[in-house]
Protein 1
Amino acid sequence: MKKLVILKFDGNFELGFQVNLEIANEKQRAYLTTTTNLPENISILQILNN
């Protein structure tokens, strides 16, 4: 059985991100949904720009 995993990121490296996770069986509604926050991390942005 295949699974569908969706990650949604909303935010930026300076203020942090809200992350939504949804897991569903193929062609069905999500049976697991959760939301969490990732803290800001400006050093990642600086590394990506270099």
Note: The two ends are 42 Å apart (CA to CA).
Protein 2
Amino acid sequence: MKRDDIIRAFTTDPDYRKICNQIGGLYADDLYQELALVMLELPGDKLERINETCIKCFYWKLAKHQFCSRNSAFHKKYRRDAEVIREHANDIVLVGQSTLPDIDLVDKVNRAIKDVYWYDSGILSLYAEKGTLREVADCTGIPIKSIHDTVNNARKIIKKKIKKYE
């Protein structure tokens, strides 16, 4: 069979949709479309060699890989966003409820920051202002690893001090 015949058989044979339904479940249509793109991108000679052996076996393995692998194009397009949303669903709901911060906790944090060594509190306030470790490192000329260690140590000390204040 030539490439066009193989592609035509692939698009009309219901077994390929069944494979996607078995593996993909709710994502079956998206998986089928993604696999169609992969199959269309294969060179003609490779597609013919695969067809000579077992193209449905190849398709099954490809579908399984696309659906299960975290590095596949399908996972990056369709599944990763859904996983992130499911993982942080409670946080997303809390943001929508617009809860006000605990004033007592804010006071404790401010008091703990004042009690921390001046260098650590200065780096921590720069980090809060700039937003990234890289920007703090660029602004101060201090290596990013040192900034990272200082921020982490200050954060740990502040957590301990807040617990002590309770």
Note: The first helix runs from residue 3 to 12.
Protein 3
Amino acid sequence: MILLRCFSFLIGSLIVAGAPFFLLPEAPQRPRDFTAVLLGCTVIALCASGFLLVGVAGNHMKRSLPTRIVGAVLLAVPMVGSIAVLTLDDLPEDVWVVAPLFCCALFLFLGFVYPGRRRRQSRSLRPRDPAATIINDAAA
């Protein structure tokens, strides 16, 4: 699992470093292009944050329900975006990036978010003997 977490952190870092070259326009020329740049930066941050969260807090995700919920929502962003891009009629030329992104997000979801906390397999300990506690209290 540590290798999967390191791989997830690497993917998140690559999304932050490499996605602007694919998504953002060359330079904003008009005010409406500024909103496209802002939206592109937000999408990049949301896509990378799910991978970075699994990379940093992957061990904690199995014990904490709120962390699993946040991880599920953040990993759903690249999965939904990948499906949306793949279902377009006019596919962009950089579509080769989308399918591995979807597969990695799905594997991380199944590896860290979906299993959750496993139930205890062993029996609980037997209850304490009340006589033993009385003897220990009297000796002290």
Note: Helices lie at 2-23, 31-61, 65-86, 98-113, 130-139.
Protein 4
Amino acid sequence: MAASAPRKPTTRKTAPRKRATAKPVELGLVLDDAAARAEVDELISDREPLFTIGGVTYTIPKRVPPSWSVKAYKLATEQGEAAALSFAVEKLLTSEAWDALGDCETVTPTAWETVLNALVERILPSGAIGPKA
């Protein structure tokens, strides 16, 4: 038998790969856009009276952004009730309202407790976080 010539390797020509076109990514709810900011600002600006000192009525928001409640809950569980109350005071009352409370020598213990309970209840409504009793 005659020797055959070595086989030449076949080169296979392949079609160029198609680049996948980028599909739009579904973002779900976008929670930090301008519309959300406007809604939260409106929520905070809808206020109701909490107390009056020297003829000036001080108010708190009727409802608060959920992020405030989450932060207060986290502070309460990690750092204690005082930290959560401090956060509530900072978010719900103006500095003028807080100063007025501190300067008013006729705030009774009952009134003080009512104000503090209203702040805590507003930022951490009963049953809003955790199991219902």
Note: DSSP finds five helices and two strands in the chain.
